[in-house]
């Protein structure tokens, strides 16, 4: 058996490393990673979160809920679309109470403020 020279050894190591990269790149992926990627790409988590926000708002707003619709939640600001300015005024009177109820119902959302805006209610 012949001894490897420095150049041959380096070439062998390079090919071995290349083969390992190829082999491990083709290894099966974990199912939990695949499902997490699918949920993120399809937006299923966002749809579920929107449903949870809608339910929490319906419970918090009570009788005023039919005149409103949940908007977006960005940077801790919970936006609610309202049918008209009279409803906005009534909701503004109860803003702190509504905020406390939403924070209790959705602690992971970290809601800091509620903003009411006139919008299309369908």
How big is the Rg? 28 Å
State the separation between the terminal residues, measured CA to CA: 83 Å
Class inferred from helices and paired strands: alpha+beta
Tell me the strand percentage band.
Answer: 15-25%
The overall strand count is 3
- Structure annotation, total helices: 5
Report the biggest beta sheet as strand number plus sense, adding barrel if it closes: 3 strands, mixed
Order of helices and strands: HHHEEHHE
* Annotated CATH homologous superfamily of the largest domain: DnaA, N-terminal domain
* CATH topology term of the largest domain: GMP Synthetase, Chain A, domain 3
Sequence of strands across the biggest β-sheet: 1-2-3
* Rounded mean pLDDT score: 87
What is the name of the CATH class of the largest domain?
Answer: Alpha Beta
Poorly predicted runs of 5 or more residues: none
Looking at the overall shape, the CATH architecture of the largest domain is: 2-Layer Sandwich
Number of individual domains: 2
Range of helix content: 55-70%
Shape: rod-shaped
């Amino acid at each position: 058996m012949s001894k490897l020279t420095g150049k041959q050894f380096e070439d062998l190591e390079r090919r071995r490393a290349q083969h390992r990269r190829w082999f491990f790149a083709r290894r099966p992926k974990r199912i939990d990673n695949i499902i997490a990627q699918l949920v993120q790409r399809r937006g299923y988590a966002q749809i579920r979160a929107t449903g949870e926000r809608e339910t929490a708002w319906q419970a918090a707003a009570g009788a005023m809920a039919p005149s409103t619709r949940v908007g977006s939640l960005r940077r801790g600001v919970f936006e609610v679309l309202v049918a008209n300015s009279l409803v906005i005024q009534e909701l503004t009177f109860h803003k702190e109470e509504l905020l406390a109820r939403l924070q209790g119902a959705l602690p992971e959302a970290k809601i800091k403020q509620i903003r009411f805006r006139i919008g299309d209610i369908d």
